[in-house]
Every structure is written in C-alpha cells, then in structure tokens.
Amino acid sequence: xxxxxxVGGGIIGMMSARSLALSGAxxxxxxQNKCAQESxxxxxxxxxxxxxxxxxxxxxxxxxxxxxxxxxxxxxxxEDTGLDPQYLKSGLLMxxxxxxxxxxxxxxxxxxxxxxxxxxxxxEHIAQVRNPRLLKALKADVISRGVTIIEQTKVExxxxxxxxxxxxxxxYKNYLSDSVVVCSGAWSSQWLELTQEVFPVKGQMIVLKxxxxxxxxxxxxxGRYIIPRKDGRILVGSTMQNVGFDRSIDEQTRQSLxxxxxxxxxxxxxxxxxxxxxxxRPASKSSKVLLGKHANFDNVYLNTGHFRNGLNMxxxxxxRITQLITNEN
Length: 329
What we know:
Elements: E1 2-7, H1 11-22, E2 27-30, H2 39-42, H3 57-81, E3 92-94, H4 101-109, E4 115-117, E5 120-123, H5 131-144, E6 148-150, E7 157-161, E8 164-169, E9 174-182, H6 188-191, E10 198-209, E11 218-221, E12 224-228, E13 234-237, H7 251-264, E14 272-284, E15 290-293, E16 300-304, H8 310-328
Parallel strand pairs: 1-2, 1-9, 2-6, 3-11, 9-16
Antiparallel strand pairs: 3-5, 4-5, 7-8, 8-9, 10-13, 10-14, 11-12, 12-13, 15-16
Helix pairs in contact: 1-5, 1-8, 3-5, 3-8
C-alpha cells in the first residue's frame, strides 16, 4: 500500500511523484502505456505560455513560479542522473500580438520588458528544454528516489467507500493508497467523473534537420512556433484540432508547418523533415487548470487540464499538490 498513488506518467505525474517523494511519501505511479509518451513528449518544451495575457491568473502564477526554478531543477536532475535535459535560455522572438492594448497592459502590470527587434519583440528570459530528454531524466530520477512505476496498466475506476477513495481498480489488480492524484492529462475524464470535463486537443508537429545557428531564438507568430535545438534540429508546431483521440497526421499539415518555417528562414525550405507526429493536449471545459481536491472525495486530488502549458507549469503544480496533500495528512 502506498501513501500516494499517482495516475498518469507525463511531466505532471512524474514531477508530482518527485515532489511527493522528496516530502517523504511512499509513491506509486501508474501509466496506461509507457511513461512520458503522450502530450509531454509531443510538445515543444517552451518554458512559458505562448501569449501569457491570454491565460488566467492561476496559469500565469504556476508558469512564473516554475520559470524561477527550472534551470536549477534541470542542473540538479542532470547531476543526479547523468542525463541532460538540455535547458537552454534561447529567448523568444514574438512577431505578433505583443503590441496590442491587452498585451501592453498585461506586460506593464507584470513589469515584463522586451527588446525591440526588427521582426518583433524579443523576450530574452524565455528558455526551453528538450522535453523527451527531460522526461527520460525525470523518470530515472524518481525511480532513484524510491517511486514505484507500473506501466502498461490502465486504471478503470476509483475504489470508493463513502466519501473516501481506497485506491484504484485496474484489469490486473487493485492498488491501494491513502491518497490518489489524478495526472492523466487528456484521459482524466475517461475513468473519473470531473466537474469540468477534460478532453483532448490534437496538435501536429514536425522536426527539420538543420545546422546550429540557422535559428537563434524561439520564433512565435500566428500561434505557431519554431524552436531551435542545440544540435541544430528545428521543431515546428503546432496545430489545434478538436478531433477526439485521433492520432492521424496528414500531408497538408506537414507542408503547412514546413512552409511556415521556410517563409521566416528561407534556408529551411530545403531542410529534411525528419519526423512528423501528433499529441493530445489536455483541455478543460472551463479552459482552466484543475489543481486541488476532488469535489466528491476527501483524499482524491486533481493535477490535470494544463492544456498547452503542462511542461512550463509542472514544477509549481507539483509543489502545490504536494503541499495540499502533506498539510492534510
């Protein structure tokens, strides 16, 4: 029996597992497939909301607090595991919307400055991580801290007695715990009734083979982005499609993403598309993060519905859910 049972092994689940383990809790993490293979792996790794003034107060609070600790967190995980998350403060060049009344007002209120650039506004403090590498390192880190990870195990439902959860039921066995933390992303509403339904929003992305120095900053324009990695590869994304759990990719989208990058960097027109994939962002009907206690159960906690911002909110989201659980137990 565990102190805490975490359902979902993406960035939110594993960061929560790490935080809870550091607090002294005995943690078991269940994932229906393999850890870190869904939205957390598929995203771009930008440690910031794309247009922060479009998000609610909680999203920005979680993001800003996480930004402050991400660099040292990656350094610590690298030291502990030998796996480099490739944290890189590459800056973000925003080519649109930064000069709207809404954006200017928000930046003034938050004392956020940028450098005027010929193509837009350069936010030098914005960083990125190579998210698949961060996730690989994070998995090794939580295992070393005593977290039990059980993969290929789909949770079917809570085990309930009165207003308490006893744990969860899976096709193979029941897992018992004092607390359950829901970190299932886009799948959260498939096994648990939530006041605000969580559903998938598909995004397609491509990666281009290029050389270091072709793109120096993250580029943001028209809701899409171009992300330069340390080795010269260029990540380009992302679409927004409300199509359920349809993983398909299509040639039209691949061409559209490639053209988006090529119009801004002509040398990328001939760059090879090395990979084209899709992922499912966990959106909520309220468009807000679900972070806190479940309305119907005293010992079930929600850490889901982060939409496009799971990675950049993960450290603070994990900290807050840990504080909530440990203060109540």
